[in-house]
Amino acid sequence: MSKNRAEEFLNTFKKTADFVKELLQENEKLRYQVANLQEELKSYKEKGVGVDAHAQCIAKIAQLEAEKNEILNKIREVEAENKSFAEKYVEVENENNNLANLYIASFQLHSTLNFKEVVQIIMEIVINLIGAEVFVLYLLDEKTNELSPIATEGIELNEVTNVKLGKGIIGKSAKTGENYFSEIIPIFENFNQESPIACIPLKIKEHTIGVIAIYKLFVQKSTFNELDYELFTLLAGHAATALFSAKLYTESERKLSTIQGFIELLTK
């Protein structure tokens, strides 16, 4: 959600608030007129003024009462609309904050080529930004076509086993490259590796290199919303690129170290 859209909501919210204020002022004026006419009618009665004047006052009061009720109805409608704008504005602000946090987090992801540091940053993002309490980070081994758990949160790493590509929810998500979200989020009781509430494939273009499987969130939700989907998608792309780059760098460093050792051995 862009900053311009947030400002548009804020301006509309302010205009609506001003309109409500004007309606309330108009309502006060009508109430004052009704009170004056009622006093005038009372005075007519006390003075014994004719029936025509009395009927005119009653008609005028009825007219003003009708106008007052119309304005009150408008105020209720505008207040309801104002509340709706306020709620949308809060949603926009929250989304902007989350996207800003994700931007900062993605910058941290790409600031290092140390594989362990990248993994740790991904774990922190999933905890703090996604709000996941129990989850597993898998990395795909293309030689065995298996997803191996490399980091966990809320459970021990030895509680998680490898997952065959294409098998179960996690394996299918990795093979198809499509996100998986449970339609109804159940209450978490015990860890069941085969029943995640969400799976986010880590992809570089159409190539999946791993999966984040989430089993429990800090804040209990009944369903996922559009903001969750957007955050998951953005996270997947950044995390995949950072992991892939760090892995390549680590492997190249290891190969370079091996070659240097071999050269040193030959030259001695």
Structural class: alpha+beta
Q: Which percent band covers the strand fraction?
A: 5-15%
Unreliably modeled segments = none
CATH class of the largest domain: Alpha Beta
Q: Tell me, what's the shape?
A: elongated
**How many whole angstroms does the radius of gyration measure?**
33 Å
The percentage helix is 55-70%
**Through-space gap between termini:** 63 Å
DSSP helical segment count: 5
> Could you name the CATH topology of the largest domain?
Beta-Lactamase
Explained architecture:
The protein has helices at 3-47, 51-109, 115-130, 168-176, 226-267; strands at residues 132-141, 146-153, 163-164, 180-181, 198-204, 207-217. It is of the alpha+beta class and 268 residues long. It has a 6-stranded antiparallel beta sheet with strand order 3-2-1-6-5-4, sandwiched between helices. Helix 2 packs parallel to helix 5. The two termini are 63 Å apart.
